[in-house]
Amino acid sequence: MPIQVTCTCGRTLSIPDEFAGKKIECAMCGAKVPVPAPGAPAGLVAPMPAAPGAPRPAASGPGPAPAPGASISVLCACGQKLTVPAVMAGRSGRCPKCGAAVTIPKGSGDAAAGPPRPGPGAPLAPPPPPGVAPGLPRPELRPLAALTPPTGATFARPGGPPARRFVPASPGMPKPELMASAPDTGMRPCPFCGEPVPADSSRCNHCNEEIVPEGAPSAFCPTCRSDRTVVRGPDGSRRCSSCGSPVAAAGRTGPLGPGALRPGRRGAARFERASATEGARAGIYIVGAFNVLAGLGYLGFFGLAFLGAVAQGALLGGAFALGALGGAAMIASGIFCFMRRAEGMTYSKTAFVLIAIDVLPFACCLAFFASAAPPDMGGQGVAMVAVFTAIALFWPGLQWFLLNKTPMARAFDR
User: Fold this and answer.
1) Structure-model confidence comparison of residues 14 and 367, the more confident one
2) Can you state the angle between helices 317-340 and 347-371, rounded to 10 degrees?
3) Long-range pairs for 119-123 at CB < 8 Å and ≥24 separation?
4) Which SS3 state, helix, strand or coil, does residue 243 take?
5) Does the pTM exceed 0.85?
């Protein structure tokens, strides 16, 4: 016949007879529930065995034998009322609700287990401090000032390792051998997925991301329109690592002019996108400022000459007009340098635009100098033409120096 046992969580368990006197685990809360003896009523806990070596209570003499079927009512400290057989008087057991030890008194009638419960009007005693069993005298508390350690006392962390002391090595002590480095396997982790890939691989075979080697040159590919790593093809040419299209080689060029343009697949040079470095931006501003100043000079000189030629009906009015137009174009190019800073432009396009703008007023100066008769103009006119011709010759050379020999050269990854 199964035994009914109530767990501390309130669930009633049906336990087979063979588990009587043992402990089982509640399937609901996992608590250990003792199974009472077969002769005990339901909900009663089997008596607790005496601890080994514990003194047995002395017998108080033969008393009257309890009547068969007599029971004793015991009240646990948690408020649970227990009914036990009278034969268990003087023994101890566990409450099936809270698991506390319950001592069954000798005698009949209702008895309370544990400390006496205060009456309705009695003041409640403060709970005992942790670590002190109920009913034991509370330890005497001392003020914190009395616990102050004496001066110079040292403390050690309980259970911690002893403090390390530095011991200098003796001159004859051998030096420890250095740990050998890991062998080079030729693999490295992918910076995107972390999987091992060959050290010389430009693309991960796990996540298919492109891996840029350290120090590898990058270039703007005009075919796929992206910044990719430059690799060497089978024929030694520079190619894009993404689409395999050829890209222009990096290097210095000569003075700006038609010879500075390098032929490509479509008859025009294909160079890389400009980078935005601080030195490059400063150089672009310098070029823009020179273009604006030179353009103002050209525009003022040729504009006044054009107005004078028109008033006198001279034949050089058209040349003067072209010179003034070239000065205006140089001013526009300077403003363009300030606005765009040549970012995203190619070196070949920039060189072509600057040379085309400079050639126009330069050609006008040469035409004016060659066609005008020095006796007719006087010494002042010859000096003015010579100055502007020198400026026209000097400015392309200055632009070449700025674009090739200064930090602005990094603005064009050629």
Assistant:
1) 14
2) 160
3) none
4) coil
5) no
